[in-house]
Amino acid sequence: MEKKTLGSMIAELRKENGMTQADLAEKMGITDKAVSKWERDLSYPDITTIPKLADILGVSADELLKCRTESKETDKKENLPLLITRAIALAMGCAVTVLSITGKIEIKSGFTLLGIGLACLAISLFIDQKD
């Protein structure tokens, strides 16, 4: 089985067993909203319910827990270049706006700052498409 998030694994196994989120929720004694949150990786089942969940889905608890978890820290590190380029673009736009309103910027300098901002936006689009 390929590495998946716990939520995607629960959704896949639920569908393979021909169950709706409401069906699984009823068997687990929880709400269908809780199942929805699990499947979207917004929350996770309580550890004490894993054996019951695995049994309902027709897999062992070990197999269910062999999924990968999405680390927020890893995601932050991977998206750092994207975040930096977007922040620079935003900063350039804000700087030009404020300096223009206050009359403290020359046209040439304003265009230079906006050019830097646009270049950063182009780089961020490239980074975003690469992922």
UniProtKB/TrEMBL annotation:
Keyword Repeat attached: no
Keyword Metal-binding: no
PROSITE patterns registered for this protein in UniProt: HTH_CROC1 (PS50943)
Pfam families: HTH_3 (PF01381)
Residue ranges of domain HTH cro/C1-type in the record: 10-64
Keywords recorded for this protein, A-Z: DNA-binding, Membrane, Transmembrane, Transmembrane helix
TM region(s), chain numbering: 80-101, 107-127
GO MF terms held by the record: DNA binding
Matches recorded under CDD domains: HTH_XRE (cd00093)
SUPFAM superfamilies attached to this UniProt entry: lambda repressor-like DNA-binding domains (SSF47413)
PANTHER family given in the database record: HTH-TYPE TRANSCRIPTIONAL REGULATOR XRE (PTHR46558:SF11), TRACRIPTIONAL REGULATORY PROTEIN-RELATED-RELATED (PTHR46558)
Protein name per Swiss-Prot or TrEMBL: Helix-turn-helix transcriptional regulator
